[in-house]
Design a protein that fits this description.
Number of strands of chain A: 1
Radius of gyration of chain B: 27 Å
Low-confidence stretches of chain B: 764-768
Strand content of chain B: under 5%
CATH topology of the domain at 586-767 in chain B: Cytochrome Bc1 Complex, Chain D, domain 2
Radius of gyration of chain A: 24 Å
CATH class of the domain at 586-767 in chain B: Mainly Alpha
Largest interface: A-B, 46 and 66 residues
Largest sheet of chain B: 2 strands, antiparallel
Number of helices of chain B: 28
Distance between the termini of chain A: 66 Å
Distance between the termini of chain B: 88 Å
Oligomer: heterodimer
Helix content of chain B: 55-70%
Strand order of the largest sheet of chain B: 1-6
Strand content of chain A: 5-15%
Shape of chain B: globular
Helix content of chain A: 55-70%
């Protein structure tokens, strides 16, 4: 089987399976992302800014 | 609010150190890049000196810009942003320091060994085995420091930039270790455990994903943190960033075989590489648009803010390079573009435009914050941007023109496709010379821009006191309801379905008879069960996914499994099948000891960087170089030497073309044989004595790796070398070439003369 897979081009099903698997994952993740609650999305998007108001720059030791 | 209020001082010292190293190594790497580009125009710039020759400096350039320049920039960006995103100081000052100094020591070791010719002979994986071990050690230090910091975080949610960093750490570790598996023959030399097509596949699985997970994913993480910060507005679509991350992680790892299209690589792997490369268009452009649209409402700032200018241009170049990459992965386009300067143009659009400009934006943004002083000159930074942009455009346009010209000329035929239109390889070289010169000018401008940054950096930092950021936070534990145990991660329905589907799918594809049937039935049953359960379980599965995003360790492990699946499914069948008994058509004869020594010289001098040894299954290749290369013809090559660029012609069948004296004269002075050639001279090969004493150890390792050498004693090896070398020296003398038989050139000639002389396989039916 290995030899056939390596030496022949008859494994188109392998390619299709890989494509379908990746496409399925892509669609599931997209669906999950689209369904994320607005509040949660905003909270995540604001994470780089949560320390801005508090951060000071003190001379290092 | 419960808990005590405490002050955290970030470890910004290590960020400053990495930033400074970025600036210095960037200048060194780019300077060497301009030099080697100039060497291709003016061969005299090789100075007939071994350690200044193109073949040795090119790995210096690539390793310096990838691992020293981008590596240091990546570490600076990751350490700065991670501390702030998780509201915690880096876990260990000692590990941070060890990481920094260890990485610089590795770079210095590389900068010394590569020009001296100590190499493994695989692109971007040239460093010798002791340095490989140091890289792994320091990478582990980095990983421990990073994950330890995550474990101590005060912000339970993991921002998408952290996801990209996690994917980088686990995937680079996996790629690096697998592609550097070697058996040492001495302190400074080793042979990779893979050979021929296995080695080619593993190398480009690594090589392509080094681009993906060293030059792309960490920089995307940096983009998702620093671009919103610079634009002072959140990322355009957090949802899109989630899709961007998962689709990149799942797809990128499969695309490596597109570096081996139309070669002896099995067809199914070529198709796999091409298809997944095309699929990369979607996530890459999703990310690019997300970056650009983050600038919505801030475009007016681009006129004055150099940081935003660099980021906007960098993201645009990311989009351009990630459009071009899949395009080049289409087999028919690749037939034109592969081995030409088009690939060089593509790579530099990504590295100069995306990596280099992201680095510049990062540096200009961080400088005032890490030294608490305004940037010395915004005008100089703006000038840097414009000089750099013009430099990239000149470089890329020149290489596109040059590459397409090369491809068209080398593939052109007349007489109904039976005769080459330009049979002399040098016709092409001389046609593209103006474009090669333009590359030097473009690269020189980019380098000049970088020197402006160096000056700006120096003037900003001079006299300034370094400062560390501090914040006050409540010392409280993250909410317990978000915890996800390891058992909860792996014994959940989504994970189990994933493992079962991959397992059954692999059984179906790779198994035979009953195993294959079980695989089909199992895979279909899995799909039906998953769909049947969706209506009742989707809420619980959604909750599991939400928890996953708050738990670093389970998240990391699942990312690892996602990337490892793509690698194993490609590599395992190829590794298992490439055995002599499976090879059809032609099979390589193991090299004689002298030929093996010559091959190691070929690797040492970096000949593979300009000459391929792979005649593709394309008519022009066959007309020019001879019958197409078979899988079995490099089955014992540790490392493979198929190459990725043809600055000079392919050498797969050069052994049947010229007499010994031709090779001697050609190495001594290429232009005496090929007027107009830009190949360096190699006078030291005619004066350096071959060190045959290392051959017994080398052959012992080759035997260990499965190369069918007989049980040769050291004396037999030396006698064999002596006898073959004397024969070649005698033949050279008869033709007017006077060299001693123990010179390196004799070994190299022995190797070159064996190329293309694989034996036809005699099948059982034919033998009877």
């Amino acid at each position: 089987m290995f030899k056939r897979l390596i030496l022949e081009d008859s494994s188109i099903w392998y390619l299709i399976t890989a494509f379908v698997t990746a496409a399925t994952i892509f669609l599931i993740i997209t669906w999950r992302a689209v369904r994320m609650p607005r509040a949660e999305v905003d909270k995540f998007a604001q994470l780089p800014f949560t320390t801005d108001a508090d951060e000071r720059h003190d001379p290092s030791a | 609010m419960s808990g005590q209020k405490i002050t955290i001082e970030y470890n910004d010292r290590v960020v400053r150190q990495f930033l400074l190293a970025t600036v210095i190594w960037g200048a060194v790497g780019m300077l060497v890049g301009v030099l080697i580009a100039a060497q291709l125009n003016f061969w005299q710039l090789n100075f007939a000196t071994p350690w200044l020759t193109f073949g040795r400096l090119r790995p210096f350039h690539t390793n310096a810009v990838i691992f020293a320049f981008v590596g240091n920039m990546m570490f600076a960006g990751i350490y700065y942003s991670t501390q702030r995103l998780v509201k915690a100081r880096l876990a260990s000052d000692f590990l941070s320091s060890l990481h920094f100094w260890g990485w610089q020591f590795i770079i210095v070791c590389a900068a010394v060994t590569l020009p001296l010719g100590f190499t493994r002979g695989k692109e971007y994986a040239e460093l010798i085995w002791p340095i490989n071990l140091m890289v792994v050690l320091i990478w582990v230090v980095f990983a421990v420091n990073f994950f330890w910091t995550l474990a101590r975080r005060r912000e339970p949610a993991l921002y998408v930039a952290i996801w990209f960093y996690i994917a980088t750490i686990v995937t680079v570790a996996m790629l690096y270790i697998v592609n550097h598996l070697s058996i040492p023959t001495s302190l400074l030399h080793s042979y990779p455990v893979f050979s021929g097509v296995q080695d080619a596949l593993v190398q480009w699985w690594y090589g392509h994903n080094a681009v993906a997970f060293f030059l792309t994913t960490p920089i995307l993480g940096i983009m998702y943190y620093f671009l919103p910060k610079a634009a002072e507005r959140p990322v355009y679509s957090y949802r899109l960033s989630v899709v961007h991350f998962w689709s990149l992680v799942f797809i990128y790892i499969w695309a490596g075989p597109h570096h081996l299209l139309n070669t002896a690589l099995p067809g199914w792997l070529q198709n796999l590489g091409m298809t997944f490369s095309l699929m990369l268009w979607a996530p890459s452009w999703g990310g690019m648009l997300n970056g650009l649209l983050t600038l919505r409402g801030a475009w007016h700032k681009l006129r004055t803010d150099p940081v935003l200018k660099f980021y906007a241009a960098a993201v645009t170049f990311y989009g351009m390079a990630t459009f071009e990459g899949p395009l080049l992965s289409i087999k028919s386009v690749n037939a034109l573009a592969h081995y030409t300067d088009w690939i060089i143009g593509h790579v530099h659009a990504g590295t100069l435009g995306w990596n280099g400009f992201m680095a510049a934006g990062l540096i200009y943004w961080l400088l005032p914050r890490l030294w608490n002083k305004p940037l010395y000159s915004t005008a100089l930074a703006n000038l840097h941007f414009w000089i750099g942009t013009v430099g990239i455009l000149l470089y890329v346009a020149a290489m596109w023109t040059s590459g397409i010209t090369q491809g068209l000329m080398l593939n052109a035929t007349t007489e109904h496709g039976t005769v080459l239109a330009y049979p002399n390889f040098l016709d092409t070289l001389n046609t593209i010379r103006p474009m090669m010169l333009m590359r030097v000018i473009g690269g020189g401008l980019y380098l000049a821009g970088w020197f402006l940054l160096v000056y700006n950096f120096y003037r900003t930092v001079k006299g300034a006191a370094p400062v560390n950021g501090t914040i006050e936070v409540y010392d409280e534990e993250p909410a317990p309801d978000g915890k996800l145990s390891l058992a909860g991660t792996f014994f959940s329905a989504p994970t189990l379905f994933w493992f079962l589907a991959v397992g059954f799918g692999s059984m179906w594809m790779f198994g035979a008879d009953l195993v294959s049937t079980t695989g089909i039935v199992g895979a279909v049953a899995c799909l039906i069960a998953a769909f049947a359960l969706v209506p009742s379980r989707s809420k619980a599965w959604g909750g599991w996914y939400e928890k996953l995003l708050l738990n670093a360790l389970p998240f990391t492990l699942l990312v690892f499994f996602a990337v490892v699946a793509g690698g194993l499914i490609q590599i395992i069948p190829t590794v298992l099948v490439q055995k002599a008994k499976n090879v059809e058509d032609r099979i390589q004869t193991p090299y004689t000891p002298l030929e093996l020594a010559g091959r190691d010289i070929y690797v040492r001098e970096g000949c593979y960087l300009c000459h391929s040894q792979m005649i593709r299954t394309l008519v022009p290749d066959i007309l020019r170089y001879g019958d197409y290369s078979r899988l079995g013809e490099s089955i014992y090559d540790h490392p493979f030497q198929w190459g990725s660029k043809r600055t000079g012609p392919d050498l797969a069948r050069v052994g049947v073309k010229y007499p010994n004296i031709w090779h001697l004269r050609h190495m001594e002075d290429p232009r005496s044989i090929s007027p107009g050639s830009n190949m360096p001279t190699y006078p030291w090969l005619l004066s350096h004595r071959l060190d045959a004493s290392v051959l017994p150890a080398k052959i012992k390792v080759q035997r260990l790796l499965g190369v069918p050498y007989g049980p040769l004693t050291a004396q037999q090896i030396f006698d064999s070398v002596d006898e073959q070398a004397k024969g070649i020296a005698k033949d050279l003398r008869a033709s007017g070439g006077y060299v001693e038989s123990d010179q390196e050139i004799v070994a190299l000639i022995a190797y070159l003369q064996t190329l293309g002389k694989a034996l036809p396989v005699i099948t059982k039916s034919a033998a009877h």
